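ugh ok fine here u go
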Amino acid sequence: MKKQTYFICLGIIIAAIALGLYLGLVSGNPVIPAAITIAGIVIAGICHHHVTEVMDDDLVSTISGKAALAALEITIVIAAVLFAGAMTFVFNGGFGGGFHTYDNGSVRISFTQFDTITHGQFVYRDTYLIADPANMDADDFWGLDRIFSKGHQVKDFPLAFGAAMGVVVVLLVSLYGAFSIYYSRKY
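structure:
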């Protein structure tokens, strides 16, 4: 196989992986993108193995190595900054609730999430009015559940995102260390 055919093969693989990611997101099925990505990696390896022309020399290998190292360093720094930012948001702030009674017997329940980084500004604020607290119905219970669950969900995504960035940093640094040791012993 010629280099040009190999690069066309890589382009098709990238398009197939992008399509697989789209189908996985639309269908909510993580197996589709995982299977297509694994198949793409295997096919790319097979295609690379069958290239008959010279793919690179020492200069290309040196440049690729330096580019890969620079990309790794920048990725680690960006992921570490995102980790720190997300965790700062998650762990600085608080929540509060309250209620106000009216002369007609109704009660307004409130729930807030605030952030101390932005000087106590509200990240989330919602209220629910219970017209007759002595005779609450299912709508009242679901309304209360909604304001409290949405209020706590405000910090769910930053927590998960921050944890993922922390794992990425640890994983990349660990892999870099392991491969550095491996290649220093090999060469």
